[in-house]
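A reminder from the course coordinator: this example appears on the midterm review sheet, so study it carefully.

Given structure:
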């Protein structure tokens, strides 16, 4: 039986890397995309990536204002509700694939998003973000966790996140605490992506704040080089807790820089966005 040859593009956003396919032509269903993600994202036996992004068709009759649909699967094959870096990457891929508009509007498992993709591929893609949900401060996990990192806040920014601020984020033991908190029963049934954050500069009305961040991601089950929705969660928690004093936050994960901005007035957030780099690493084909 002749095997299907899949054309793919390897891309990343701030080091968060993806296998990207144009599913407008293949029409893979979710079960097939899930199996494909687990296989292709394997670092040793596949292409290697944090997840699989699929550019999918929309229903022109019921969704005339949408340009495409985003399907995202984690490296373990689980469906990802949302991925900020992935959304920027897929928007760049859509732009390069001929969907060229001033603003791209698309659907995800977490709702509707829109992105501004500049012609210059070296410039950041700007992604408008919906309001976050279900903010829960001071989630108690254990006395040991509180001693190691202080309070932990939960917030849903398109997917489940927890945020803790630590004294030295680069030296913090993410390999130990990340999986322990990711699977902790207090975050059941979905678990969380765990973000460890350090405040480098609190900023002001006239200057941006600066945070360092490391994220242990569910579905990847490891620390990734960057997480877009995690960057948004960290900025929201930092501003809410008055650890930063600017509505523009510069975040430095290991893989590259991400900018988060919003309006914050009388304790209420609006006009949230993030901006960051996207890059094409290589294109190729693989037998399925």
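Designed residues:
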């Amino acid at each position: 039986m002749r095997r299907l040859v899949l054309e793919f593009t390897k891309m990343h956003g701030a080091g968060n890397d993806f296998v990207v396919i144009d599913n407008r032509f293949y029409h893979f269903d979710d079960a097939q995309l899930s199996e494909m993600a687990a296989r292709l994202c394997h670092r040793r036996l596949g292409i290697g990536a944090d997840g699989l992004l699929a550019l999918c068709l929309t229903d022109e009759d019921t969704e005339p204002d949408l340009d495409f649909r985003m399907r995202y699967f984690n490296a373990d094959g689980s469906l990802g509700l949302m991925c900020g870096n992935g959304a920027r990457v897929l928007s760049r891929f859509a732009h390069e694939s001929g969907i060229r508009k001033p603003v791209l509007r698309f659907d995800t498992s977490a709702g509707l998003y829109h992105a501004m993709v500049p012609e210059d591929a070296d410039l950041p893609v700007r992604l408008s973000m919906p309001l976050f949900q279900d903010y829960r401060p001071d989630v108690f996990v254990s006395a040991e966790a509180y001693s190691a990192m202080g309070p932990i806040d939960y917030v849903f920014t398109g997917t489940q996140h927890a945020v803790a601020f630590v004294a030295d984020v680069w030296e913090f033991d993410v390999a130990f605490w990340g999986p322990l908190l990711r699977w902790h029963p207090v975050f059941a049934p979905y678990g969380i992506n765990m973000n460890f954050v350090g405040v480098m500069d609190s900023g002001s009305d006239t200057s941006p704040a600066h945070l360092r961040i490391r994220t242990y991601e569910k579905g990847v089950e490891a620390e990734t080089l960057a997480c877009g929705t995690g960057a948004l969660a960290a900025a929201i928690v930092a501003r809410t807790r008055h650890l930063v004093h600017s509505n523009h936050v510069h975040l430095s994960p290991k893989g590259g820089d991400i900018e988060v901005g919003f309006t914050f007035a009388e304790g209420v957030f609006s006009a949230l966005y993030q901006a960051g780099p996207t890059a094409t690493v290589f294109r190729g084909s693989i037998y399925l």
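The two ends are 12 Å apart (CA to CA). The chain has a mean pLDDT of 96.
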